[in-house]
Amino acid sequence: MEQKPKYYLIMAGSTNHMLRGDQLLKDSGLKTALVPAPSEYGSVCAIAIKVKTEDLKQAEVILKENEIKLEGIYPEIPKKLSGLVEKLYQSVISDDFLMILKKVEEGEELSFEDIVRLLKTERKAEMDALFDAADRMRKEIIGDTVDIRGAIEFSNICRKDCKYCGVRKSLNDLKRYRMSEDEIMDVVHQIHKIGLQTVILQSGEDLWWTPEKIVSIIKRIKKETGMRITLSIGERPKEEYALYKKMGADNFLLKIETTNKDIFKFIHPDDDFNIRKQCSSWLRELGYLNGSGNIIGLPGQRVEDIARDIIYFKEMGINMIGIGPFLPAKGTPFEKYPPGSVDMTLKAVAVTRIVCKRVFLPATTALATLDPDGQTKALKAGANTIMLINTPVKYRYNYQIYSEKNMVDLESAYKAITESGRKFPPYLKIDLEELKDAGDTKK
Ligand code: SF4
Where is the Radical SAM core domain (predicted)? Predict the structure, then answer.
């Protein structure tokens, strides 16, 4: 007999209708969640309202009464990974760990306790099983192609003093820079020439970059290249976010860093957790492909905090999640703190893939900095994106959020993609043989 679905996914006709509908349902006492919609129901950035099957009828009535436009209502089909556990019976894996993987195999949701248990394992066989499960989930949901994006760190001037950050405002020795619009456009054209489709414009919270200046760059990028634009320029008023979206920005990256409010406050003397979260909600509301992420190994952080971060990403409907290890930066209050663990970062990547499923998960530069094979390992543990650092050489060494930053270039991306047995994106316009030769010569 066919099983009744536990949940339904409601796809609204627009982001505004989706958000208004979700709020109306919540106000009526229904438990809902905003989740990335499965590929069969929408594009990678589409978000759906998830409701329990027993609440569906009531939800439909509420939405209809309030004239919320709907595109469709679909049963949630759990992503099953058949045969996942069977091959593990011969391995040295505890029964409770195996039971959690069985839940993954059956497409069941993991509880907070399950997530903590997965993250806490230090047994090699269990970690391998976790990475394999995440890799399988990534393959079935997203496929083998690694998305490559190009980042330009266009200003290292910042009004804030985050304690871990290598460009914080109190660092007097740092040579500060702002790239000019033409300098930025030169790099955008280089990135465009090699076929990349998304450019990430990243900076400190530098208010010299007024809305007019940011809009001018967005317009030029769209007009001259048509590339997708990710902004990563920090906290700004909602009206500004709305303006950038209207002018053509597609994605926004604003990391929460940690959902533990005490740690958040400790590491961010100028910030307020609720404002950061509010900014992230605005970005989602405005229809951005919404990026967030966390740092693994922050002072005082516990495994339970990382589990809560992962649940936050899921509940906030985050589409791009950058998970990197903490790396001490010279001259900062945290310079003597030990770096985060590669294994814990990889476990967090893997569990995030399993829990959040259809999201962009970068193999981060921070991981590549701590471990030369870090990106390959991340790509084998659920990651599907690589961000190249395209900041001009004369500036890039002054944009080190942490010290000894690995400057991920096409050659290292080539290495990570080939070593992990993955595919290059079809849009790349470069000779892969040349890259291979360049890598071989360096060895
Ligand atoms: S983390 Fe971002 S906001 Fe904080 S000091 Fe560094 S650049 Fe500025």
Answer: 144-364
Res 207: pLDDT? 97
Residue with the nearest Cα to atom 4 of ligand 1? 162
70 alpha carbon to ligand 1 midpoint, in Å?
A: 40
CA distances (Å), origin 431, targets 145, 387, 424:
17, 19, 11
For 376, list phi and psi in degrees, rounded to 5. Answer: -60, -45
Q: Which of 161, 205, 272, 399 to mutate to test the pocket of ligand 1 (most atoms within 8 A of CB)?
A: 205
Q: How many Å apart are CA 408 and CA 425, to the nearest integer?
A: 17
- Residues of the chain with pLDDT > 70: what percent? 93
Structure tokens at 179: 């790239």
Q: Whose CA is nearest to atom 6 of ligand 1?
A: 165
Q: What is the pTM of this model?
A: 0.88
Residue with tokens 């903590």: 116
Closest C-alpha to ligand 1, atom 2: 204
Compute CA distances 392 → 189, 201, 304, 335, 403, whole Å: 13, 13, 39, 26, 18
